[in-house]
Amino acid sequence: MNQKKSIALTTTFVGLVCGFVLTQQQAAAAAINAPDPTATSMVAPQSTLTTKSAKSNEPNPNEQLVNQQTSTQKAVTNTDIGSETVNQNQIPRTQSTVSPATNISKEPATSNNNPTTSAQPQQETVAQNTAATSSANSANEATQPVSQPTVPATPQATDSTNNVNTASATTDPQVETIAQGTWGTSKWEYTHQGDDYILHFHAGILGASSHGYVDSNNYFLGSIGKSPEIFNGNWQWNEELTQIIIDPGVIANQDSSYLFGDLRNLQKIIGLANLDTANVTNMSGMFESYQGASLDLSHFDTSNVTNMSGMFLDYQGASLDLSHFDTSNVTNMSGMFEFYKGPQLDFSHLNTANVTNMSEMFERCDLTNLDLSNFNTANVTDMSYMFEACGLTNLDLSKFNTAKVIDMSDMFSGCSGLTNLDLSKFNTAKVIDMSDMFSGCSGLTNLDLSKFNTTNVTNMSGMFAGYKGSQLDLSQFDTANVTDMSWMFLDYQGANLDLSHFNTANVTNMAGMFYGYKGSQLDFSNFNTTNVTNMSWMFAGYKGSQLDLSHFDTSNVTNMSGMFEFYKGPQLDFSHLNTANVTNMSEMFERCDLTNLDLSNFNTANVTDMSYMFANCSSLTSLDLSKFNTARVHNMADMFAVCSGLTSLDLSKFNTANVTNMSQMFWKSKNLANLDLSNFNTAKVTNMREMFYGCSGLTNLDLSNFNTAKVIDMCEMFDGCSGLTNLDISKFNTANVDNMYCMFANCSSLTSLDLSSFNTANVIVMAEMFEDCSSLTSLDLSSFNTANVHNMYCMFANCSSLTSLDLSGFNTANVTDMGEMFSDCSKLNNLNVRNFNTTNVAYMRSMFGNCRELTSLDLSSFSTTNLNDMVGIFSGCSKLNHLILGTIFQTHYDESLPKVPNTGTRVPGTNRVVASPYWIATSGYQQGHKYTFNDLMELTGRDQV
Q1: Is 30 helix (H, G, I), strand (E, B) or coil?
Q2: Is the Cβ–Cβ distance between 193 and 174 less than 8 Å?
Q3: Could you write out the DSSP letters of every residue in 242-269?
Q4: Residues annotated as region Disordered (predicted)?
Q5: 700-702 and 674-676 as β-strands: parallel, antiparallel, unpaired?
Q6: What residues have CB less than 8 Å from 197, skipping those under 6 apart?
Q7: Given 45, 58, 546, 776, which is the most exposed site by the fewest CB atoms within 10 A?
Q8: Is 815 exposed, middle or buried (0-12, 13-18, 19+ CB in 10 A)?
Q9: pLDDT at res. 883
Q10: Domain contains 242
Q11: What is the distance between the alpha carbons of residues 876 and 878, in angstroms, rounded to a whole number?
Q12: Alpha-carbon span 659 to 677, nearest angstrom
């Protein structure tokens, strides 16, 4: 960029001279680009958008030069030393051309080691295992080239049925050997041929299973994919593998769990029938997530297998024939067909006589029909989640023997397609857990449980959640041992529900028990709630008829959080509720439709959390909390948020000595006109964020007793208090506050603010702090310490009554955003920003936009070094006629600086018109020289590439 020298410019109007001062700006360009003094008009300038200079042709530090290896650098194959087979370490991948009749070419390749030159395209490198050898062999290898084995021809499948002796294939002349080694005693090689990545196993015993979650990728790897002997952490190989070839003589390990699991790109297994599985006991997850061609399992010997859990989990392949499976010794079929997405299956040949675990067996499978008439479930103890979220429309379990089942939790949950379920033959005498058993069975029209034996059941949580059918007869239920009934009738929409026979003497948890209940009146006269400790959300969203709680014993209840949240029933009588031990009342009445709340009997001595307790109770017109004991309360966040029906609130008896959070406490309670907080003790409060946000009905707020020494967040504290005409915060201690975003925004009736006591040393955000304080006529910020502030976006936007603002004491060294900082300060005629440090500012869009009364601006300290956007920075500054720019001010767009009015344009506020549309230098270099707008842009614009 050319060196720029100081120059001063003016424009001449009839009877008016405007000054424009540019210091230290491009003297040479000024002399060269000086316009003809006789010109009377100017052409609108072209945009001076800056483009970045082209990058130098330097090597990319992220690119790694790859040295080509000569073809004489041969891979070392597995070496048998005595009876010991040694695995090879991986070496760089080499590309080779292979012919069945010839060895790999030994013609050397030329290496490129020039560090200043971009690397030429290299052949792919492959990893290969290096054999460990004896000291004698090592010495020999040190002096002789290592021989390269001939890459074995890739076997080809002759059909898709995986016949026993079809492990042979036509050899592609272009075969890339990626790696080779030994797993267990089976030698293998991993090759790339055409579009396929092929893993070929030769005769021998496969290695032991190795599988588990990979945290970095968050997916489950199978035995092959996780095996350090094969892929050794190269997870992309696990994703790219398309074929597996199995030679005759390959013997599966006793633990073959997840053997082919999660190889999501695997298209076929050639020679699967060659795999000897006679000794396998564990096949769990063996074909998890398989998506390829049909599997031939006709030769699978499963006679010794005991574990088939998750064997076909998430199976998405072609047809699956299980007719040859011998499952006589299998005990675990948990999740065997979970998430199954294949064709229909025939289970008639499965022997389940010894199975004890069928949990999740068909969970979320896509099967539309299940014929389990052949299932022998005599020994099954766990049927939890067995049919969870299946798309079944019909299910016949009439032959199920459930005599030994202990767990039926979620057994049918989410089976929304079922309309009928006959469980009349179920023996549930030993069942302990029935939680969520029918949860989400929204399609059931009838459910006959008259023969259910629930004597031993302890958990009925969520058992009938979402039930919409006809009357549910639970009169035979023995609930004497039940301890958990939480969410039991969540969103129940069925017919009459008679719970008069329920024995609830041992129940401790009734949380959400009738959440969203839409049925008829409930009779709680026999409910024994003596031992209940949790009633949170018990009647939340209740839409039923009359609710009589007079018989409730709540003496041991500690949690009533959300107990009546979203309540839409009739009025309630709380006079009998014993709340002496309650510690949590958060959200207790949030969004309820009650118009009156008599809580005079409430004992709140032990309550620590009252957050959201009355939030959004917009129907309440009065609230008497004079008897509330809040001595132990820590959290009052949103306690009265959006109580739009309240006009007054007497909190004079509140003890807030232990409260730490008052954020949004009165948020949007827009009709509150009177709020007495004179007794509030705020010594421990750290959060006052949005405390009075949107309290537009308040006209006066006395916070003179507020101790804010520990407050960190005052973001939007008074935002939207548009009715406030007076606000005394002169005693505020803001030493620890770091966020003042929108603190006084939209306080449109305030005419003055005394912030002289404000300590802003730790404040980081002041964006929109005074935005739309349209009645403020003066603002003294001389005590403000802005050294740590990063954001001043819209800080004074629309302070339309301010006429003067002195910010000469502002330290803006760390500010990055000044966009719209003074926009729409329409009466501002005196603005002192001469000491602003804008070195780090990236955003100045419309910074002075529509400051219509500004006539002069000294921006001599402004730097635009890191600026990205200054569009419209002076837009609407129609009276700006004196502008001082510094040596490091550079424009970005042709609209960044004020344009000279066209000839004949009326000068704002006068009867004068423009006669000579030029900027004229009034001081500095070439005083008196004329410049068109384009010349002016050149003086302050960035170099063009």
Answers
A1: helix
A2: yes
A3: -EEEE-TTEE--SB-TTTTTT-TT--EE
A4: 48-170
A5: unpaired
A6: 178, 190, 191, 237, 240, 241, 242, 243, 265
A7: 58
A8: buried
A9: 81
A10: yes
A11: 5
A12: 14
Provide the pairing of β-strand 930-931 with 830-832. Answer: unpaired
For 223, the domain range is: 176-274
945 contacts 54 by C-beta, under 8 angstroms: yes
* Dist. CA 406–CA 115, nearest whole Å: 70
The per-residue pLDDT for 180 is 85
Output b/e per residue, 445-466; b: 16+ Cβ within 10 A. Answer: eebebeebebebbbbbbbbbbb
- CB count, 10 Å around CB of 908? 11
Contact 382, 360 (CB under 8 A): no
| Low pLDDT (below 70) residues in the chain | 1-173, 210-236, 887, 892-903, 905-945
pLDDT value at residue 936: 61
Give per-residue pLDDT as tens, 606-659. Answer: 999 999 999 999 999 999 999 999 999 999 999 999 999 999 999 999 999 999
CA distances from 729 to 704, 708, 767 (A): 6, 10, 20
Helix (H, G, I), strand (E, B) or coil at 484: strand
231: helix, strand or coil? coil
How many domains does one find in the chain?
A: 1
Question: Does 634 map to a domain?
Answer: no
| β-pair type (186-193, 196-201) | antiparallel
User: Which residue in 700, 755, 741, 745 sits closest to 723, CA to CA?
Assistant: 700
Q: Is residue 548 part of a domain?
A: no
Q: What is the pLDDT of residue 34?
A: 38
Q: Is 249 exposed, middle or buried (0-12, 13-18, 19+ CB in 10 A)?
A: middle
Query: In terms of Cα–Cα distance, which of 715, 723, 779 is closest to 746?
Result: 723
Task: Give the closest residue to 651 by CA, choosing from 675, 681, 617.
Answer: 675
Whole-model pTM: value is 0.76
Residue 248 has what pLDDT? 98
Cα separation, 944 vs 53, in Å, equals 9
Q: Are residues 743 and 717 in contact, defined by beta-carbon separation less than 8 angstroms? A: yes
Q: How many helices (H) and strands (E) does the chain have?
A: 5, 23
CA distance 76 to 127: 11
Burial class from Cβ neighbours inside 10 Å (0-12, 13-18, 19+) for residue 121 reads exposed
Closest Cα partner for 681 from 712, 706, 662? 706
167: in domain:
no
Question: What does the pLDDT read at residue 604?
Answer: 98
Q: Within 13 A of 505's CA, how many CA atoms are on the CB side?
A: 5
- Give the residue ranges of DSSP H helices in 159-275: 223-226, 235-240
Buried b (16+ CB within 10 A) or exposed e, 754-769: ebeebebebbbbbbbb
Q: Report the candidate in 330, 338, 291 with the shortest Cα–Cα distance to residue 313.
A: 338
Length of the chain: 945
